[in-house]
């Protein structure tokens, strides 16, 4: 007798409070100021979201020197360093800061530790915009630690004045391993006041672990440059999924992945609109799989107010 096929979709998945706020910020900025509105870097790491906002009149740039003087520019959810704020001011740009408040919290922690003369070991990925922004708060005091294996190479002036911070979108388990190794080297290692890996990252990793345990295949919807989406694939494999792949949308699913597969789990990163997940579920149904059943780990209710500079201009229009 053939085995029964099943599709389980994880919850929470997709948009987090910081991404929701950042995307709405660009939409409202386009309403208030009219196109074009410039956005430094991808507002969130999702190709579809960026293309959709481009179609509405947003112009994405890598650096501020691409923004004409006097224009409005939005800073992405990943945050920027003080040097970028200073450059915008010097260039006479109107800025709207869509940095996620949970990233801003890490910036404040970095400034506070640096102000106390504490050396900061920032666990994160080189080149990620969030890491560049946080490092820019106190470049003289911050060293990047990318993997547990980097710990042996860390060099600090005073081993009793060392703290750790993290990027918000890391693997919870791998970060715990890095911190354990850091504490073995620096027994007086100072902890951040609260967890830097954000609630959305943690919830999505826990939820994918739950579905991975009983999935032959886990499909993660998310872009290649989305740190938290890439982590979800790693977490699914570590939790027991026989295979796991990341796709930007349903068209990237290779039909060979489904051969011999009975149970499919589906989830998405924090920057992914849910219609892309629905596209994957529709595709699976077209391939003979049943409608998906949602497996929910927890409810999320956090929301963030829009940036104050935008709220002020929205009020003035009423
Ligand atoms: S993943 Fe976390 S830190 Fe990043 S935007 Fe979302 S809520 Fe903010």
Automatic annotation (TrEMBL):
Q: What does this protein do?
A: Catalyzes the conversion of 1-hydroxy-2-methyl-2-(E)-butenyl 4-diphosphate (HMBPP) into a mixture of isopentenyl diphosphate (IPP) and dimethylallyl diphosphate (DMAPP). Acts in the terminal step of the DOXP/MEP pathway for isoprenoid precursor biosynthesis.
Q: Which CDD domains match?
A: lytB_ispH (cd13944)
NCBIfam families the UniProt entry points to: ispH_lytB (TIGR00216), PRK01045.1-2 (NF002188), PRK01045.1-3 (NF002189), PRK01045.1-4 (NF002190)
PANTHER family given for it? 4-HYDROXY-3-METHYLBUT-2-ENYL DIPHOSPHATE REDUCTASE
> What does the record give as EC number?
1.17.7.4
From the broadest rank down, the organism's phylogenetic lineage runs: Bacteria, Bacillati, Actinomycetota, Actinomycetes, Propionibacteriales
Q: Does the keyword Protein biosynthesis apply?
A: no
Q: How is the cofactor bound?
A: Binds 1 [4Fe-4S] cluster per subunit.
Q: Which cofactor does it need?
A: [4Fe-4S] cluster
Q: Which residues bind dimethylallyl diphosphate?
A: 45, 78, 128, 226-228, 271
Kind of enzyme, top EC level? oxidoreductase
Which residues does the annotation say bind isopentenyl diphosphate? 45, 78, 128, 226-228, 271
The record's section on InterPro entries has: LytB/IspH
UniProt-listed Gene3D superfamilies? 3.40.50.11270, 4-hydroxy-3-methylbut-2-enyl diphosphate reductase, catalytic domain
Query: A single Gene Ontology molecular function, please?
Result: 4-hydroxy-3-methylbut-2-enyl diphosphate reductase activity
Question: What's this protein's family per the entry?
Answer: Belongs to the IspH family.
Q: Which organism is it from?
A: Propionicimonas paludicola
| Keywords in alphabetical order | 4Fe-4S, Iron, Iron-sulfur, Isoprene biosynthesis, Metal-binding, Oxidoreductase
Reaction(s) catalysed by this chain's protein: isopentenyl diphosphate + 2 oxidized [2Fe-2S]-[ferredoxin] + H2O = (2E)-4-hydroxy-3-methylbut-2-enyl diphosphate + 2 reduced [2Fe-2S]-[ferredoxin] + 2 H(+); dimethylallyl diphosphate + 2 oxidized [2Fe-2S]-[ferredoxin] + H2O = (2E)-4-hydroxy-3-methylbut-2-enyl diphosphate + 2 reduced [2Fe-2S]-[ferredoxin] + 2 H(+)
Segments crossing the lipid bilayer: none
Name of the molecule in the record: 4-hydroxy-3-methylbut-2-enyl diphosphate reductase
């Amino acid at each position: 007798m053939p085995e029964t096929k099943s599709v389980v979709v994880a919850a929470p998945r997709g948009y987090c409070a910081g991404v929701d706020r950042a995307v709405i910020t660009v939409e409202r900025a386009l309403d208030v100021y009219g196109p074009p509105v410039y956005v430094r870097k991808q507002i969130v790491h999702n190709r579809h979201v960026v293309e959709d906002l481009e179609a509405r009149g947003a112009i994405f740039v890598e650096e501020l020197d691409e923004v004409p003087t006097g224009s409005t520019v939005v800073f992405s959810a990943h945050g920027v360093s003080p040097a970028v704020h200073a450059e915008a001011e010097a260039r006479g740009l109107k800025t709207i800061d869509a940095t996620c408040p949970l990233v801003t919290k890490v910036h404040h922690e970095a400034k506070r530790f640096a102000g106390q003369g504490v050396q900061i070991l920032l666990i994160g990925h080189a080149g990620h915009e969030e890491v560049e922004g946080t490092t820019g708060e106190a470049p003289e005091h911050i060293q990047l630690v990318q993997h547990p294996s980097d710990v042996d190479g860390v060099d600090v002036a005073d081993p009793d004045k060392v703290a750790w911070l993290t990027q918000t979108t890391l693997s919870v388990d791998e970060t715990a391993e890095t911190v354990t190794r850091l504490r073995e080297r620096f027994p007086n290692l100072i902890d951040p006041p609260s967890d830097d890996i954000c609630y959305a990252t943690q919830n999505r990793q826990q939820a994918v672990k739950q579905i991975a345990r009983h999935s032959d295949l886990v499909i993660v919807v998310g872009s290649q440059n989305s740190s938290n989406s890439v982590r979800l694939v790693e977490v699914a494999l570590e939790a027991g999924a026989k295979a796991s792949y990341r796709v930007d949308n349903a068209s990237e699913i290779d039909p060979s992945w489904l051969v011999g597969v009975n149970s499919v789990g589906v989830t998405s990163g924090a920057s992914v609109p849910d219609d892309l997940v629905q596209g994957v579920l529709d595709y699976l149904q077209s391939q003979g799989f049943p409608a998906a059943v949602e497996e929910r780990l927890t409810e999320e209710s956090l929301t963030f107010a829009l940036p104050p500079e935008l709220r002020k201009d929205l009020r003035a229009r009423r």
